[in-house]
Amino acid sequence: DLQICQHGAPTCCTKKMEESYQAAVRRERTQSIQALNFELKYMIVGHITAFQEAFESLLRFAENRTSSLFETAYRPMAKEAAEPVKELFTDISLYILGAETTVESAVLRFFDSLFPLVYSRLINPGITDLSEDYTECLRLTRQDINPFGRYSKNMVTELSKSLWASRMLSQALSLGTEVINTTEHVALTKECSKALVKMQYCPHCQGLTLIRPCVGYCLNVMRGCLASVSELDAQWREYISTLEYLTNEMAASHDLEIALMGIRNSINEAILHAQLNGPQLSATVDKVCGQPKQQEGNLSSDNIVAVKEATETQTFVMAHASLNNKRREFINYMKRSRTFYASIAERLCDGDLVMRDSSTCWNGEDVV
């Protein structure tokens, strides 16, 4: 009553043993595919973590530099500006990690929050009553009167270019892990299970426990079993090319690090622009929002302070070099895995499974 290991000679197998063999080959194939995938998955997951840590390190560094701008140059509003600065960098971080948000909305939301502070603490430092309604009016007016000139739009443009590649790379890495996880649990068909039993365990039914499959026979069986997986080859090659393109984009003109470091300077230029146009802005705001309560005394010229770029270059250079090295290591490894799905049958037939250095092997029917 044997269904798979049918042979003219006497046999020591039963139908129940065949069923056990089928369960065994399914388990073994899953384990061997997982073992092949492990290194690749480990590399991708490791780099997802490394990239995210490097991104977070750069974001924290850029956030600290931006906060120090307010503490050193715009002290009257430093305390109140802390929250909008934090929100801006949180939004940037969420964008890189794939959240449904845009760089433009994050930057403009920041400048909406900044304008009431600049207006009441720097342009008209005598304002005492900054009610919720008046603050909201200032926020809404910012969109119409554009107090920060071209600097807010320039910041959107610069950040959008550099953060786009980082966001895409982050999503692409997650996609790679998903693909590997899916192929790890590929279901073997009944025909495949039978072919694997015939290749690996039918010799045992004849008492030939040391004979292994012939190389060509193993390749034919594995290619048949993993046809659906090897079909991923073209898409996987394209995926590797996309990763290469994205890492090059990040390292080239859309440099994430440079853009993040430029946030401090862009905000400083924007605030200076608003201060220099203070009288015109005040006239427009008074018409739209009304005149708030003021103390005696006007803005003194001492409040306008041009800030020199901070010289924290060493930390920045280290973070920049770290991210560049991680990119380079990662893409070099991934390029080597370009043929991963095309060669999966060959890799599964490598090693102990087949007989390589012997004159005899199992061809599915007999010892040859």
Short description:
The chain is mainly α and 368 residues long. Helices cover 71% and strands 0% of the residues. The chain is built from 14 helices and no strands.
Number of strands: 0
Determine the N-to-C terminus distance.
26 Å
The percentage of residues in β strands lies in: under 5%
Mean pLDDT: 85
The structural domain count equals: 1
Question: Radius of gyration in whole Å, from Cα?
Answer: 33 Å
Strand-pairing-aware structural class? mainly alpha
In sequence order, what are the helices and strands, one letter per element? Answer: HHHHHHHHHHHHHH
What is the molecular shape? rod-shaped
| Biggest sheet architecture | none
Helix content: over 70%
Runs in which pLDDT lies below 50 for 5 or more consecutive residues are 296-311
Number of DSSP helical runs? 14
Question: What order do the helices and strands come in, and which of them pair?
Answer:
Blueprint: H1 15-73, H2 75-96, H3 103-123, H4 132-145, H5 151-184, H6 190-200, H7 202-205, H8 215-225, H9 227-230, H10 233-251, H11 256-276, H12 278-289, H13 313-336, H14 344-348
